[in-house]
Structure formats: structure tokens, C-alpha cells
Design goal:
Blueprint lengths: L5 H11 L3 H10 L4 H10 L4 H5 L6 E11 L2 E11 L2 H4 L2 H17 L4 H6 L1 E2 L2 E2 H12 L4 E10 L1 E7 L9 E7 L4 H14 L11 H17 L7 H16 L5 E2 L2 E5 H8 L3 E8 L3 H4 L1
Antiparallel strand pairs: 1-2, 2-5, 3-4, 6-7, 7-10, 8-9
Helix pairs in contact: 1-2, 2-3, 6-8, 10-11
């Protein structure tokens, strides 16, 4: 029997695209014989995983959880993509999502690289995802990742229909007082897709770009030169009201902003995140 080395495993993985655990099993069954191990992999349909890599995976689900942390609570959310919604809504895929988010929380992962490296029952989450591709016969991948932390974290998971898993997850971290309105704010985040928490969080280059566009648009409209600065400021304020969470109008009472909700509660919003299936690639 040939010795099953790390180099042998890597070689077979490179040639077949199969997951590490599948390669190990095949080599063990084949007693280290590469040719026989390839036959075993082909017979179980695992080799197709490599070919799936080039296929688009823009369906799927958002898995999320809140755990207790040293300074309060931590919320995690991970996008797991499949090629079809048919696979995404299966109990097996939903269970796979729960397995991944549990591993993510245990590893305190906050980005895709950390998620891939997080320990799992298959070795790492990356290997778990590779094995999922073989199981579901589709390209499966990790998409967007988010982590928020604060004294309290609220999560709202939105489903497009009852038979589908969550396709949008909104998370908001608040202080204790802010938790009174956190659920309503999570609904707002889900529906209105803010990009930044406060005006101060908007990058300077984004503000400058918006100011330049507003100025050029005002000039093209033939506005009097002396009132253009005022018009530009008005358009900038409109931009902030659309994209900044605390400045958005509260959808259930447009006489108030989200910032007003927190003031009335005597609390603060600390951080938020919004993940939607299939949107990560669009934003890159």
C-alpha cells in the first residue's frame, strides 16, 4: 500500500477538483493507488466539482446568528451561494448554512478569508464548502461576510417567500437603550439599503464626487451661478438622506428620521450591516 502523503492528496485534488475529505477517503479505499482513487471519485460524481468552479452561483441564502461576547453581543452573517434557488431551498442546504455560521461564530471570523480558514468538521469551512458542491452538484461558494458588535445586536432575516431561506439579513448593533428600537431599525435597513451609519462615515472621496456631479448638473440646467452652491448643498443633503441610516426617513412615519427614533429612545446605533443574496458581485 502506497503511503498517503499530503503531496499525494494535493495532486489528486488538483487533478479532480474534489474536496480534501473525499480525496482522503478515495485514496484510503484505493490503498494509495492514484488511478483507482480517480475511478472512485468519478464513480461518486465528485470530480465534477472542478468544472463547477466557473459557473455563476448567485442564488443561495444568508445565514446569521447572534452570540454573547466579552463586551456584549456579536452578530455574524454569511452569504452562501448556489447556482439555483431549487438547491438553496432544500433542507440540506439550509442545514449546511447553519453549520457554516456556527463555525464562523466559533472562529470569530469577520471576512471571507477568515471564514474559509475557520475550523469545521471537514477541516476548514473552505473544505466544507467544496464538499457541499459535490453533494449538491452545483458551484457552491462563500459570498459576503459581516460582523457587528455592541451591547445589543438585533437581526432581521427577510424571506422572499415562505419556502425560501433568508435572502436578506439586516444587523444593527446598539447600546442598551437603543435596543428598544433596534427591531424597527433592522426592518428599515432591510427595506431601504442604507450604505453608511452617519454622515461622518461617508468617505470624503464619495462626498466630493457627489458634490462635483451636483455642481455640473446644476450648471447644465442653467441655474444662476450665485445660487448653485445652495442647490448643490441641497442635493448633497438629499444624497445623505437616501444613503445614511440615521438620516433616512423612518418608513413607518416619514415625519421622523431613524436618528429621531434613537433620540426618543435615549439610545445609540453603533454599527450595522446588510447582506443580500447575489448583490456582492454587483458591488465589486
Amino acid at each position: 500500500m502506497a503511503k498517503i502523503t499530503a503531496a499525494l492528496i494535493k495532486e489528486l485534488r488538483d487533478q479532480t477538483g474534489a474536496g480534501m475529505m473525499d480525496v482522503k477517503k478515495a485514496l484510503t479505499e484505493a490503498e494509495g493507488d492514484m488511478a483507482r482513487a480517480k475511478e472512485i471519485i468519478r464513480a461518486t460524481g465528485i470530480q465534477a466539482a472542478g468544472a463547477r468552479e466557473g459557473r455563476k452561483a448567485q442564488e443561495g441564502l444568508i445565514a446569521s446568528t447572534v452570540v454573547e461576547g466579552g463586551q456584549g453581543q456579536i452578530g455574524y452573517a454569511v452569504e452562501l451561494n448556489s447556482e439555483t434557488d431549487f438547491v438553496a431551498k432544500t433542507p440540506q442546504f439550509i442545514e449546511f448554512g447553519q453549520e457554516v455560521i456556527d463555525d464562523v461564530a466559533k472562529a470569530d471570523a469577520s471576512n471571507a478569508e477568515q471564514v474559509d480558514a475557520a475550523p469545521s468538521k471537514s477541516g476548514t469551512v473552505k473544505e466544507t464548502v467544496e464538499e457541499a458542491g459535490a453533494l449538491f452538484h452545483e458551484h457552491v461558494k462563500v459570498g459576503q461576510v459581516a460582523r457587528v458588535e455592541g451591547p445589543r445586536v438585533e437581526i432581521y432575516a427577510h424571506r422572499k417567500s415562505v419556502e425560501m431561506p433568508p435572502s436578506i439579513v439586516a444587523m444593527i448593533a446598539t447600546d442598551e437603550a437603543g435596543a428598544q428600537v433596534a427591531h424597527e431599525v433592522a426592518l428599515q435597513i432591510s427595506a431601504m439599503s442604507p450604505k453608511w451609519l452617519s454622515r461622518e462615515d461617508v468617505p470624503a472621496d464619495v462626498v466630493e464626487s457627489e458634490r462635483r456631479v451636483a455642481t455640473e448638473k446644476s450648471q447644465a440646467e442653467g441655474k444662476p451661478e450665485k445660487i448653485i452652491p445652495k442647490i448643490v448643498e441641497g442635493r448633497l443633503n438629499a444624497f445623505f438622506k437616501e444613503t445614511v441610516l440615521l438620516e433616512q426617513q423612518y418608513v413607518k412615519d416619514t415625519s421622523k428620521t431613524i436618528g429621531d427614533l434613537f433620540k426618543q429612545a435615549g439610545g445609540k446605533a453603533l454599527a450595522f450591516a446588510r447582506l443580500e443574496v447575489g448583490k456582492g458581485d454587483e458591488e465589486e
